[in-house]
Amino acid sequence: MIFERKHIISTKDFSRDEIDLILDRAEELEPVARKGHLDLLKNKIIATLFFEPSTRTRLSFDTAVKRLGGSTIGFDTATSTSIAKGETLFDTIKIIESYADAIILRHPREGAARMASEISSVPIINAGDGAGHHPTQTLLDMYTIRKECTKGIGDLNVAIVGDLRYGRTVHSLVYALSLYGTKLSFVAPDQLKMPSNIINYLKRGGIEFFETSDLNKVLEDADVIYMTRIQKERFPDPSEYLKVAGSYRITTDMLAGVKDDMIIMHPLPRVDEIEPGVDSTKHAKYFQQSFYGVPVRMAVLSLVLNAEM
Amino acid sequence: MTTERELRVKPIVNGTVIDHISAGQALNVLKILGITSHTKSVVSVLMNVPSGHMGAKDVVKVEDRELDPEEVETIALISPKTTINIIRNYEVVEKFRVETPRSVVGLVRCGNPNCISNTNEPLESRFFVESEDPVRLRCSYCEFVLETELAEHLL
């Protein structure tokens, strides 16, 4: 079993075969994720250490553990723990590894999960490290694309829109999609363009991509529109944020010329990137996408803990 | 008659001649060696010396001192073409070019202020060397890439 006791830190650590394996397992577990229960993690204790607030990620991990018959310990704010007294993450991990069979870690510092994986004897699952990685978000995005699109991942044209500079989810997603040869379009204002290291990576790999600041240029050909929030909290200078806030918004009127089977995704939470009227159209898949976090996280947990189906 | 060139490279009895330093990096080499205005050592610093290969180079001569491997490794990060000459009794007993290591541990501070290595965690900074000349370092924790003003990030 290639995932047994493996740390899940970055999507970059995965091959295409490994991603496929996780998505296949998620497919098997999806009926259980909807309304079921298995004992795959019976007698397993999973620690959820959330050093910064999160709603969907924490609750979907919690749901995933409980759907698989396991139990959770942990915290969702560091203020009520020894961390508030100055305890290091190093010490926290060394203590919790003796309590739990796996640790799900969300931390505001980039590289926190990588450090934890080097000292932990139990698998670390990165649930977001600052602006670094959030691998299970990418995996659920990939799962959504695979489930909700009528063509294979490699045959799609995926347009990613919004904050491409600071958005950690899109960087990992681009990496994962590139493994499948997916055609990519990037829509962002100049200040928020995709970083050069990712552009160079795509060029080196011969991956086809297109950059523009005009959302209308990609609507007609896109199979997937992946909207992202322009994140106020990532801007060092608030005046720079105001220049680009609200740059892109999908409205029902804009859907007139799109492909019949085009889907709209969003990692959520949204602010005003998607008009509420879009929610009731066949194109809206972002709430479904959010649900898919449960089977995907069930898949990851069952694989790293070698829970045979 | 003594030429200007001979004056610049006047031999030392014992010590180290650090040659082919990238122009402008001599003061950073002194910083790496911990040489300050309070030093008791005899130190010669030549800056922007014409060089056939490099156009211009810096040279540092430190008398009665040989460098340790960590100092040599650190010099390689800011000046990868540097050569080290060990002098004993006026003779060059060893001459070698610095080598950029494959990884750099505990020598450089990550340029990402939000990196876990810039906290009070009990860990040393660690970088993979992505490119030797010019030197590009990638933090093995947060993946931040350091490629300019490396000298400012030396620990």
Task: Walk me through the structure.
The complex is a heterodimer of chains A (309) and B (155). With 309 residues, chain A is an alpha/beta fold. Chain A has helices at 16-35, 56-67, 89-96, 112-119, 135-148, 168-178, 196-204, 216-219, 238-244, 286-291, 293-304; strands spanning 45-50, 71-75, 102-107, 124-129, 157-161, 183-187, 209-212, 224-227, 263-265. Chain A is built from eleven helices and nine strands. In chain A, the strands form two sheets. Chain A has a five-stranded parallel beta sheet with strand order 7-6-5-8-9. Chain A is globular, with a radius of gyration of 19 Å. The two termini of chain A are 12 Å apart. Chain B is mainly β. Chain B contains three helices and nine strands, in the order αβαββαββββββ. In chain B, the strands form two sheets. Chain B has a five-stranded antiparallel beta sheet with strand order 2-3-1-4-5, with helices on one face. A four-stranded antiparallel beta sheet of chain B has the order 6-7-8-9, with helices on one face.
